[in-house]
Amino acid sequence: MSGSQFEPSPQLGLPSAKILPLPARAPERLVGVGFRCWLSGLSTGDIRCWEEAWNTFSSTLGHDHAKALLIDLSKFVRAVKATTQREIEVSESGCRGFCRDECLAISIIAACQHDVRPALTASAAALVGSNDIGDTLNGAQTLAHGLRQANQILSPDSICPATCALRALQRRPKLAH
Hints:
Layout: E1 20-21, H1 26-44, H2 47-61, H3 63-83, E2 97-98, H4 100-114, H5 117-128, H6 134-149, H7 162-171
Antiparallel strand pairs: 1-2
Helix pairs in contact: 1-2, 1-3, 1-4, 2-3, 3-6, 4-5, 4-6, 5-7
């Protein structure tokens, strides 16, 4: 993960991510910040990342909903991390916006909630860098359902059009294994 230092990609000569303003809507903020914090925690082992996710979720939803949703979030993020074919980028803690990969994670959950299959599969493939998206979709469906149960419905405007997600996939170099 590169944090919020978005330096030009050496292969492409382009910025590696664009920061979009942090949405004021709680559901998008929960998914974006939760994805950022959980992935950072898994990558660094720093408990402060998970504490930030807990504080974000519990202050918005209360302890009971937060506990259940963080389990769902963990399953989604672990599925993404397990199947990714590239480095997932997230912004640093406290960043006031979301980078492309965080927006793709938000798009995946919004597309699940609104049953927009083409954008869902394209966003998932763009995020993980391959078409091996089954586990990612399973985790996303679980998180999307849990958020719906907690009355946290993401806006359909948060869904990245399939063509946009596919362009993001085409720009991404794959990790050497």
